[in-house]
Amino acid sequence: MDDLNIKNSCLNRKVKNALNSALQGDSTHYEELVDLIHHSQRSNPVKAAMLATCLKTISSAVASIDIVQHRSLLEGIFSMCLWKFNTCVMDALLELIISLASFSAVPLDLCLEMMVSNFVPPAYLLEYLNRPHYVERKKKVFDRVHASLETIFDLVPLSALSLERIVRERMPSVYHREPIILMYVENMLRLESGTMGKLVRNSMLMAIMVRLIDLDVEIPWDVILHDDFVKGDFGANSMAEKLDSLMVVTLEHIKLSSESGRLPLVFETLLQSFKSTVLTAYKSKFAQFVIFYACSLDPENCGQQFAITLLEIFLGNPYLQCRMSAVAYLASYLSRAMFVSDSLVVYMLERLVYWCIEYCKNRDGVSSSNPRAHQMFYAGCQAFMYILCFRFRSLILVPRFKSKLALLRVGEILKHPLNPLKVCLPSIVEEFLRVVRSSGVFAVPENSPASSGLVESELSRAFGGSERLDMFFPFDPYLLKKSGSLISPIFVYWSMVVSPYHEQEDDDEKDSSDEDEADVSVGGDRMMSFDDDDFEVDDDYSD
């Protein structure tokens, strides 16, 4: 032990002398030190011990470091990869990085960039990451990196702002390999839940949502509608595989956030992200289920807030496309979310129908000859009809809800010259009319487009235009396999919905109505009757 201490003491003196000599113009010993750092990647145990001692010595002598004179040394230090060293070298290196980060002469960004570069391993290690040794190595690296980042944050509080920017800028694109994307996002989520979460949460979660959308839009509709995709076989579609895996990581993180009591904070950011990115994304197919899942973890607060936000956007946003998208999301959400209460559904139906009634009042005598001039009206009508296709049966089973539905002036809307039954999507109109006619709750026209079969009119096509509403039910069945296991238990499928008129048909007709072809234009959706949950909406919604 004494011999070891003597050797370490001698090495300490050599390192300090090398640093000081370089400042005096004598670079002989300094070059030896630089060479040790640059050629340390595959060192044997003896050299590894020497390297650790050198790093510790440099750490204690950071005040002697000159960013110009010692540039090559700093370059060597910042290029070192934690994944390649044992824990002794890791700890010594991170101790040095922390010392450099707190030393004003060295740019903080260089230290943070070095730390972020270790969010992912060298490319040659990717194929070994599932082996026990490298699983443990990954944990050791990540634990140390984040502990060090938190230490730097304690020493330099403003480092969080620089770190947030660096992490966003270095985030892998959709074209990187799946393990790289997943590990990087894992570290982003760890930052979000750590001591710097308050400062970096918005940026981390929003960046992840943007990446989910980037992957989402890379998957074309023709691929999604293919039978193999529906069965969970993505074939050569790597984007779908990446998206599926990234959704799992994201949803599991949200679940952990709920368990730790942080869901309100996370949801606030997710809602902001939804309004700024998802809502305006062109026919997003999967990314929106992040907030859908978050709502399921707290229906009374998050779930209700999401619905109210969508309604407010529909009623008051100045941009037509945002309003159209919001009401489509609202209808799809209230129809598909198993965790949404009947109380909230009825309240939202009242608001939608009231808005449509007021629209009709201001346009007496206006016909449906120009549907595109009244897109918002038809979107609102299609929304409440779509919701009723899914939720009508459960609502009329509860007397107070049935009474509320009976008070809705739906008949006035349907009989107005704007004629929504002629313009809205025929499959929804037909299913809606079958449901309400069998119950007698609403007064509906005797002669309607549905009586002549499922035929789309020119007016219906004109209403949709390039933004066809029959192609945009945002919470249609979720077809990603791994992450789908988290969505399926909270999702209402069409095979789960049994309309009252089915009960009047014989068994053969009822069986056929439950088959795939009975879907309400939702592309292979399958649903069954669902049980009402115990979620109670605020008293204001029950009035």
From TrEMBL:
GO annotation, cellular component aspect: nucleus
InterPro entries registered for this protein in UniProt: RNA_pol_I_trans_ini_fac_RRN3
Chain residue ranges for the region called Disordered: 503-543
Domain of life: Eukaryota
Ranges of Acidic residues composition bias in the record: 504-519, 530-543
GO biological process: transcription initiation at RNA polymerase I promoter
Gene Ontology terms, MF aspect: RNA polymerase I core binding; RNA polymerase I general transcription initiation factor activity
Assigned protein family: Belongs to the RRN3 family.
Protein name per UniProt: OLC1v1018571C1
Lineage: Eukaryota, Viridiplantae, Streptophyta, Embryophyta, Tracheophyta
